[in-house]
Amino acid sequence: MPGMNKHLDDKLGSVLARRKSNGKLRRLNNTPANCVDFSSNGYLSLSTNSAVQKSLIERLQLEVAVHEKGKKILHDPHRSILGSGGSRLLDGNSPFAESLETKIAAFHGAEAALLFTSAYDANTGLLSCVPQVGDVIVYDELIHASVHDGMRMSRASRRIPFAHSSILEPNLGKHDMRHQSKNLGLHDILRQLSKDKLTGNGETNVFICVEGLYSMDGDVAALNEVADAVDRYLPSKNGYIIVDEAHSVGICGEKGRGLVCQLALEDRVWARVLGFGKAMGCAGGVVLCSSITRSYLINYARTLIYTTSMTFTSLASIDVVYDYLISGQSEPRRQHLDTLIHYTHRQLHALCARLQPGQHHTLHVRKTPSKSPVIPVFTTHPRALSEHCQLSGYMVRPIVAPTVPAGSERVRICLHAANTAEQIDGLCSAIEVWVQNQTAVTTKPQQVGNERGRESAEAVVDVSTRRDKPRL
Ligand SMILES: Cc1ncc(COP(=O)(O)O)c(C=O)c1O
């Protein structure tokens, strides 16, 4: 009934108005075509790479030709190009999907692989069905929203966050707290759990969830130390490490095999979740695990069972990107990206040193050179800075609390293989001009920028890993 709809719309509208007044209203934006991309997660610029695009089109044309001739040359003759026909468990499976999983598992040194339509589904599917009553999930406090959602759906008895990257043992004097956190470090939590009767004697399990490369800070997880801590405090072998490699696949390790492979931790990490939507330039996700775990997920992961499986086109795009990686063609791109990472870091450092920004517009970058294409530029005015960069033709996004802890607001620079040193120079110049403008108006630092620009910048800020729970 229209009256009822209006009543609910009024309530939803007031929630949105509150969100807007808090500066957190989300909107759908189109990135301006003339902006240099320093924002997307397509680190290797593969989605726009002509060789990859050509391979995909050839693959699709071949498939169409096969269908037209009615020949049974490739894979499954019943497979359609547009839709998969249903869930993997019904009509949506294909020899192509299975052979792609075998290929992916082999490339990453895993026993088995199971594709999901997204890394979000892979994380929620895995975490919602594996941990059981009595089990504990220990997770980095900056872990992605999909892990949070999976944990909430799980039967685990406890979920315990640890301070971001607080993995090194505290008494070694190397405590790696990146920011003040109310949460304990990983060692403290595992030590406490080891004293707990059921986890201590191995009757219940502990799942430890971390990311390979954190997309907000650009830092890489100290996975060796995580594995050592798990071995040390959970000697009954009931500690299971899960690494979300959504951002590290394609970037870390030989040929982009990921961080777990780079550190040769395949046997010490229980499961990995990879995402194809970032460096890999397409879409979808996969869980790398044991064959038994794969079968278990096929039976219990609801995000696999109750959804239409990937289309042929999606599978083919993942397949051509893997071919590109396996053949080593992506290596020059990774090397160029590496050069850009170091160059950007040097330029930003030189800029900060030159500017000596005043207290109203703190601007700094980390001293240790970033190993990743994600470089945070910390500033007290992330929205104004990103708006200025966007208006200057450089797409960067402001990242503010609660996505990152209050006091660590930043503009995030994401580098890509298709970026150039000249573009980085241009971005650094834009930042420099902004700081100089700020210095000139230090009495009114908040008023930089026009209203329209501010709104467009705000619309993209809050990609919180926390769950939104509007109160109606
Ligand atoms: C760390 C991490 N895990 C998982 C996901 C989900 O990836 P997808 O876009 O494939 O659902 C993302 C995407 O933002 C992510 O950043």
* Mean pLDDT across residues: 87
Residue stretches low in confidence (pLDDT < 50, at least 5 long) are 171-178, 443-468
Distance between the termini: 20 Å
What is the share of helical residues? Answer: 40-55%
Helix-strand topology string: HEHHEHEHEHHEHEHEEHHHHEEHEEEHH
Q: Superfamily at the CATH H level of the largest domain?
A: Type I PLP-dependent aspartate aminotransferase-like (Major domain)
CATH architecture of the largest domain: 3-Layer(aba) Sandwich
Number of strands: 13
**Overall tally of domains:** 2
Please report which band the strand proportion falls in: under 5%, 5-15%, 15-25%, 25-35%, 35-45% or over 45%. 5-15%
Write a compact overview of the structure shown.
The protein is α/β, with parallel strands linked by helices and 472 residues long. Helix content is 41%, strand content 12%. The protein contains 16 helices and 13 strands.
Keywords, separated by commas or semicolons:
472 residues, 4-stranded antiparallel beta sheet, 7-stranded mixed beta sheet, 16 helices, Aspartate Aminotransferase, domain 2
Describe this structure in words.
It is globular and about 65 Å long. The protein has helices spanning about 1-20, 50-70, 95-105, 120-130, 145-155, 185-195, 195-200, 225-235, 260, 290-300, 300-305, 310-325, 330-355, 380-390, 420-440, 450-460; strands at about 35, 110-115, 135-140, 160, 205-210, 240-245, 270-275, 285-290, 365, 375-380, 395, 395-400, 410-415. It has 2 domains: about 30-45 and about 330-460, Alpha-Beta Complex (Aspartate Aminotransferase, domain 1); about 95-325, 3-Layer(aba) Sandwich (Aspartate Aminotransferase, domain 2). It contains 16 helices and 13 strands. Helix 9 links the parallel strand 6 (about 240-245) and strand 7. The longest helix has 25 residues, at about 330-355. The model is unreliable at about 170-180 and about 445-470 (pLDDT under 50). With about 475 residues, it is an alpha/beta fold. The structure holds pyridoxal-5'-phosphate (PLP). Pyridoxal-5'-phosphate binds near residues 144 and 246. Pyridoxal-5'-phosphate (PLP) binds near residues 118, 146, 211, 215 and 246.
